[in-house]
Amino acid sequence: MSVALGLSFILCGLCLLQGVHSQSQANSSGSSISSTGSTIDYCQPGLCPQMKKHIACRNNGNFGSQCPINATELLNITNYQGLIVSEHNALRNVLAGGKVHALLPMPDRMASLQWHPELEYLATVSVKHCALLHDPCINTRQFPQAGQNLALIHLNFSLPEENRTDEVLIKESIAEWWSQSANVTADRVQKFPRAKQGVFIRNFAVMARDNNTFVGCAALRFVRRKVEPDFLMACNYASNYAVDHPIYREKGPRLPGGHPIPSTPLCAALASSTAKQCPWRTPPVICLSKNRA
Question: Taking every annotated instance into account, which residue ranges of this chain make up the domain SCP (predicted)?
């Protein structure tokens, strides 16, 4: 964590799964106008799990009641789309190369993220509540199981201005989400844990989903009670982690030609008390067990 943030960085890991929504209707049907300009009925049945309200259902797009009047500034996220996508893909590329840390297995594949305007629109609705609360439902017709990451940074005016720029704060938010990789083991990759065990890895888990193809984000600054300002950022993703399911599919050893190996791995014949190299992979990798190369 950089000196710019100190101890004032909060991830939405212990947040309640609830939202603070404006109850004013966008129109008589409850539809909203997305950033693509199309009218979408976010109140439609089947879009959200039972008893969960969509964040954009009957939302008028105004700032929420927790936002201070005349002290809220929504970032022009268009200026930072390239940065956000690049930061995400750079970290996913490190994971794809098996270089995060020794306990994290290499993914079989890892899709590149692209920007999506509807995910951006829903992230904008999220941050306009000026609250660090995960939304109960951000699904879309295209992304029926969307994921979300939130970060809140309390800024300190005693720090140099260069440590408080939008670019720096966006990078710090993404880096802090990814830093939860330190809490992830191979077992947790294979099966996302239940309850509190999952709280401290779920920001990373959303970013590390192998089938995540799109992201859309929003951010704002706001000042409460004439104190130092806050920076709130939300990113919505095409896919979310699922409890008791893998975060991503692990890469297994391959035969020449790229074919999967038989159920009894060839690597098993090479495994011993000392690490061996699997000859069918280029560059060669270390065989650490009979079950995984």
Answer: 79-243
Fold of 9-237: Pathogenesis-related Protein p14a (3.40.33)
- At residue 23, the pLDDT reads 31
Q: Which residues of the chain have pLDDT under 70?
A: 1-38, 253-293
**Residue closest to 151 by CA, chosen among 168, 165, 129, 170:** 170
Residue 211: CB atoms within 10 Å? 11
Look up the pTM and report it. Answer: 0.78
Residue reference for tokens 């439609």:
44
pLDDT tens digit string along 87-108? Answer: 999 999 999 999 999 889 999 9
- Tally of CB atoms within 10 A around 129: 23
Angle between helices 81-96 and 166-178 (to 10 degrees): 30
Calpha distance 176→7 (Å, rounded): 12
Which is it for strands 230-237 and 147-154: parallel, antiparallel or unpaired? antiparallel
Between CA 258 and CA 281 the distance in angstroms is: 9
CB distance 256 to 163 below 8 Å: no
d(CA 146, CA 212): 9
User: Could you read off the pLDDT of 191-244 as tens digits, one per residue?
Assistant: 999 877 788 999 999 999 999 999 999 999 999 877 778 999 999 999 999 999
The one-letter code for the residue type at 200 is F
